Amino acid sequence: MTDPSYAAILGFGFLLGLRHALDADHLAAISTVLAERPSFRASSAVGFWWGVGHTTTLLLVGTVVLAWEIRIPGRFELLAESGVGLLLIALGGTLAWKLYRERWHVHSHHHDDGPHVHFHSHQQQDDHRHRHWMAGSVRPLCIGMAHGLAGSAALMLIVLSSTRELGSGLLSIAVFGVGSIVGMMAIGLTISLPLVYSLAASRRLFMGLQGCAGVASVCIGIWMLARLAWS
């Protein structure tokens, strides 16, 4: 029979995973990815694979820490968080470059019923809807693994404060991971709402939201690096 106190710890771990999904760096990363794939189906897939990557890294680190009783050095945590900051800058910069490369502009032409004005791009390709599921899963999976590496030190402190056993420790990490997966899938769906509806309503509005996602990602990445440099 499960110890009630341990069951409470697992429940707390699940809720902590849900809360963990709301961290600013996670929101920035998922926003930039979804800004390039505005669909409800993509939102759940991106959130799921991000969470799987995040949980996989945590389980690998947890196995090493619990099995060999290794203490994660502070320098490792610093390097991992710096990597996430650089990753956010790269994601935001890539999205900004994509917007520039597509060169959306007002295009005027005539039909039989009169002149028309609409947004047009000579660079846009509409093959993104037909890409294999693997092509759209590897990227969020890798991003999630990077975030999991950066957050592993803090989570290990929580796990080690409750247990030193490999089995129970990995179970706690797995429950935390399930919470983060559920949280990221819900967040992905929420973020996709304005993206999908703005794309249907106005190309200019959709581009504005894409630009905001890119700028936010770059700003949060710079803020993370500056915070680490000053700490």
Topology summary:
Elements: H1 4-20, H2 24-35, H3 40-68, H4 74-102, E1 105-111, E2 114-120, H5 133-162, H6 166-201, H7 203-230
Walk me through what this model shows:
The protein is mainly alpha-helical and 231 residues long. The protein has one domain. It has helices at 4-20, 24-35, 40-68, 74-102, 133-162, 166-201, 203-230, and strands at 105-111, 114-120. The protein has a two-stranded antiparallel sheet with strand order 1-2. Helix 1 packs parallel to helix 6, helix 3 runs parallel beside helix 5 and helix 6 packs antiparallel against helix 7 (203-230). The model is unreliable at 116-120 and 122-131 (pLDDT under 50).
Question: H/E element string?
Answer: HHHHEEHHH
Distinct helical segment count: 7
Q: SS-based structural class?
A: mainly alpha
Work out the oligomeric state of the chains in this entry. Answer: single chain
Number of strands: 2
Strand order of the largest sheet: 1-2
- How would you characterize the largest beta sheet? 2 strands, antiparallel
* N-to-C span: 45 Å
- Total domains: 1
